[in-house]
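Students often ask why we bother encoding 3D structure as a string. The short answer is that it lets us treat folding as translation between two languages. Here is a chain of 364 residues written in the first language.
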Amino acid sequence: MSEPRPPADQVIATVRVALVCVVAVLQFGLGLRNLLRHDYHPRFLAVGAFVALACVTAATAAWVLRRRPPPEPVVAAGTAIVLAASVAATTATPAADQFGPADWAFGLIGWHLLLLLLDRAPVLFAALGVHFAVTVGHFLADGVPDRVELGTAGTVVIGTTAVQLAAAVISHLLSRRSREAMALAAERDRLATRVLSAEQWERGQRTAFAGHLGATLSLLADLADGLLDPRKPDTRRFAALAATQLRRLFAENDDVPDPLVHELTACADVAERRGVDVSLAVSGTAVDVPDHIRRDLTGPVAAALATAGTRARVSVLRTDTEVRVAVVSDAGAHATPANSPEVNVESGTYGQYTRMEARWRRQS
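And here it is in the second language, the structure alphabet:
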């Protein structure tokens, strides 16, 4: 399936369709009648030029009517044929009839060049210059024209050139405006997407803060009411886990090159303040991990570090296909894995040591 073309190309395609209609009407409605009414020397050059121009129109229309740009070889060959037809038709037209009704090819050649080279302005102007030079040169070769002849020739040249150049300029202005409008629309969409993402992120942060703060406030209220004993190991583990989760949540808002390692370091910092000897090993380069995936990856580490007694080792492995976060600590059987639909968590207890690993497979 072909990709949709940008609006700027659609403008050129639409103008080309109109140009095909203009060329066909001018050639077969006006040019053919003048070709049959006037004499040319030799006549076969004028007829050959007419047939060549008709072939160029038919070949170009095969792409233009399907709203596709003509291929480079077609444009190159068509331009050469049109310029050759310009020379042939001008040579066959008597100099006295130049720029008159018998000179059916002068204006028609310009429209053919405009049809072929509409999106190639420098080449279009160069080709029009060659065509005008051939016609004017043939006109002046018959001798010095009088004022009336010069006035007639100037009126035809200026009038025809002005209309054709105006069509080219208007087409390019419409194309440029369409391109600018498309760029503005794309920028507006990008800004809207950023605003929506920021709003979603803010709502997620509020929800996460509300959840953790709710658990922390409940803990503090129970401690204040005497419902929990701070001397009990379970209470200390609960408080350590709440502190670790809050510290990781605060770290999530920091603008750092490697958010995952930064959040793990924040979790380790809380454990070290409790006297736990924590080591962190990182392998692989930083990769883009969504916020909710980082929460699921760091959740087991936070739980293990909150329940660790004296030591813990955290390791991070990042490859092109997956991200692994593992922790080995002397948490015993107190640590529990976190469940997640996107992050696979495995846990095993070996004596007083517990190993937990969270694995996330990256989608290509």
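Translate back mentally: The chain has two domains: 7-185, 229-361. Keep this in mind for the problem set.
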